[in-house]
Design goal:
- With 296 residues, the chain is of the alpha/beta class.
- It folds into two domains: 77 residues, Winged helix-like DNA-binding domain superfamily/Winged helix DNA-binding domain (Arc Repressor Mutant, subunit A, Orthogonal Bundle), CATH 1.10.10; 160 residues, Rossmann fold.
- The longest helix is centred in the C-terminal third of the chain and has 26 residues.
């Protein structure tokens, strides 16, 4: 998880001076270089000691260390500025044509960003884990659970049964997996171990289940506790946005890559299986349609 996402989490979790400081930092990120600690304290109606405690909440020893790291991230964000803002890709003045164009550009940028973030060694490891596993179960919540369903269907077309843990019964799914199985855990923040789906990682590890994580960039709980992690496009804010356009496209892309690499492991057999089944399904559809048609 990147630093600006950690700050957003603080804003969401706390209803005290930490929220006021976090909101100020996010709003004035481009101007923080020119502001002294005293000026920030004055404008947030806090104190220098409170600013230090805010920095410590996020894991820094003091305000100076925090600001240094944050400004590095701001500088990186400015240098790698995307053509379309992933959080607000359109506004109320835009025409329908402009909105369509912006969403198209944003989705393409999201995939390009995901490719740039892709660690091939991690991908090799993830595919190896899936190939050796008897069972594959995905742990995620909305909206990623719908993308997981598309992945499940693709795997089914080559004869591989993949389960999606129902968030209401995910604890049960956890208890039936063994060291011969693998779990794919999808979470953007990847950092709250008491909430779905991250809450199940500890139990999965105890049962020896190998875990593939799909999460945002930077350091977070998932990366520290899984066997390998793939990085989704991480330019979106946690809550200050219209929708999950970029992350949804990124996760969909990564799941397609996992399926394709898994498919490649047994390419000829999978092609034959896929074509044979497709023909059978279409033959059944054609037969059913003929039975429905009335004779003249």
């Amino acid at each position: 998880m990147y630093l600006f996402q950690q700050i957003e989490e603080v804003v969401l979790q706390y209803n005290d001076t930490r929220r006021a400081i976090g909101e100020f930092v996010l709003k004035e990120k481009s101007n923080l270089r020119q502001l002294s600690m005293n000026e920030v304290a004055k404008r947030t109606y806090t104190s220098k000691a409170t600013l230090v405690r805010f920095a410590q909440t996020i894991g820094y020893s003091g305000w100076r260390e925090f600001i240094s790291a944050f400004m590095e991230e701001v500088l990186y964000e400015e240098r790698s500025h995307a053509e379309i803002d992933p959080n607000f890709p359109f506004n109320e003045q835009d025409s329908y044509e402009m909105i369509a164009n912006n969403i198209g550009v944003l989705q393409a940028e999201s995939i390009k960003d995901t490719i740039n973030l892709l660690d091939v060694n991690m991908l090799n490891q993830a595919v190896g884990i899936m190939t050796k596993s008897k069972a594959i179960t995905l742990f995620c919540i909305s909206p990623y659970i719908y993308l997981a369903e598309v992945f499940r269907r693709k795997m089914l077309t080559i004869g591989e049964i993949v389960e999606i843990a129902n968030p209401l019964e995910a604890s049960i799914s956890t208890q039936v997996l063994t060291e011969n199985d693998c779990a794919i855990v999808i979470s953007y923040s990847g950092n709250n171990e008491i909430l779905e789906p991250i809450v199940h990682i500890s139990a999965l590890k105890k049962r020896g289940v190998q875990i593939i994580g799909i999460t945002s960039g930077g350091d977070n709980y998932i990366r520290k506790n899984v066997d390998c992690a793939l990085t989704m496009s991480s330019r979106e804010r946690l809550y200050s946005k219209i929708s999950n356009f970029a992350t949804e496209e990124s996760v969909h892309f990564l799941l397609n890559v996992l399926f394709s690499c898994y498919f490649k492991q047994n390419y000829k057999v999978n092609i034959e299986h896929k074509i044979f089944n497709s023909k059978e399904i279409e033959r059944q559809r054609f037969s059913t349609l003929n039975n429905i048609n009335e004779n003249p």
